[in-house]
Design a protein that fits this description.
79% of the residues lie in helices and 0% in strands. It is mainly α. The chain folds into two domains: 60 residues, lambda repressor-like DNA-binding domains (434 Repressor (Amino-terminal Domain)), CATH 1.10.260.40; 83 residues. It is elongated. It holds the Pfam family HTH_3.
């Protein structure tokens, strides 16, 4: 820390990280960035975006205001004071929409899996009783669709797991 000067934003981040007993590598993994990115934040070469700032404040168990206190001039302080409530509300809204779309996506996947199993069953019955080119094509289409849907489901579950780990 510089003598007689206010701490910089990067120094605040570093101090909060050390106080929370994290390494740069730990923070990088939890925020899904590289260790070099965390280093750039701590040396004031770049700044994290608002969403990462929220995640960092939760990770370090302090408010975003505490992390940003060294960032600001008096003019900027008034800006943050005025807009603090707006930013907090926007973060709540984004969290709501994230869970809303995740829930909607799960419903969509559930319906698609149901349709898929019906389609495969129908195709197998068609193949068994009436072997035609259309029956074979329908069966292969539903098998292809099941593989694609499987990977979409895995991606969805991974996304939710990642979001929970960040918190």
């Amino acid at each position: 820390m510089k003598e007689g000067c206010q701490m910089t934003f990067g120094e605040n981040l570093k101090q909060a990280r050390i106080k929370s007993q994290f390494t740069q590598e730990d923070v990088a993994k939890k925020c899904f960035v590289t260790r070099q990115t965390v280093s750039r934040w701590e040396t004031d070469r770049t700044l994290p975006n608002l969403y990462l700032l929220k995640d960092l404040s939760e990770l370090y168990n302090c408010s975003a205001d505490e992390l940003m206190q060294a960032l600001v001039t008096p003019k900027q302080k008034s800006f943050f004071k005025i807009n603090r409530e707006y930013i907090q509300n926007m973060m709540k809204i984004n969290t709501f929409w994230f869970f809303f779309f995740q829930f909607s996506f799960f419903i969509w996947l559930f319906c698609l899996w149901g349709l898929l199993f019906w389609g495969i069953t129908y195709s197998v019955i068609q193949l068994y009783f009436n072997l035609t080119i259309i029956g074979i094509a329908l069966f292969l289409f539903f098998i292809f669709l099941s593989v694609v849907l499987y990977f979409i489901s895995l991606w969805t579950l991974r996304t939710i797991r990642i979001k929970k780990e960040v918190k």
